[in-house]
Amino acid sequence: MRISDEITAYILRMMEDAENGAAELRRNELAEELGCVPSQITYVLTSRFTPQQGYVVESRRGGGGYIRVRRVTPQQTATPLMHIVNAIENELVPAAAEAILQSMVYQGCLKKSAAAVMAAALSDRALRDVPVELRDRVRASLLKHMLAAYL
């Protein structure tokens, strides 16, 4: 098992064991416990616990600082939508747009029919008249605006 898989599994177990479903950790302590460097913890948090995948990662810096990871539940619909909107960069490839929409359907934040319409509007086929070098930028802007309107 790769170290990133071990870190992911460890954090998921922490979330399951926590009363509130949120894993609260200190990066350096976790790295020491798992025998890795702190940057590997950061990598896992930024690549596997993203808003697009249904997670919210909060951090507090300083002496008593921590990182809190929690899965967004369907009852918290407006909050994850705003996290997702804010997490979308200035450019978005088709696969990432599709992953975001699928995750939102899975979480119950978005109806399957709405996701299908959005996916069609974000496809390269729909954007064929947009110059190739601008498509990912236009796709990101469109998704942000569609999600904001869906709220």
In short:
The protein has 151 residues and is mainly alpha-helical.
Features of this protein?
mainly alpha; 3-stranded antiparallel sheet; Phenylalanyl-tRNA Synthetase, Chain B, domain 1; 151 residues; single chain; 2 domains
Description:
This protein is mainly α. It folds into 2 domains: 69 residues, 2-Layer Sandwich (Phenylalanyl-tRNA Synthetase, Chain B, domain 1), CATH 3.30.56; 77 residues, no CATH class. It is 58% helix and 11% strand. The chain contains 7 helices and 3 strands; from the N terminus they run αβααββαααα. Strands 1-3-2 form a 3-stranded antiparallel sheet. Strand 2 and strand 3 form a beta hairpin. The N and C termini lie far apart (40 Å).
Q: Total domains, how many?
A: 2
State the order of secondary-structure elements, H for helix, E for strand.
HEHHEEHHHH
What portion of the residues fall into strands of 2 or more residues? 5-15%
Average pLDDT works out at 84
Number of strands: 3
Layout of secondary structure:
Blueprint: H1 3-17, E1 22-25, H2 27-34, H3 38-48, E2 55-60, E3 66-71, H4 78-87, H5 94-107, H6 112-122, H7 132-150
Antiparallel strand pairs: 1-3, 2-3
Helix pairs in contact: 1-3, 2-3, 4-7, 5-6
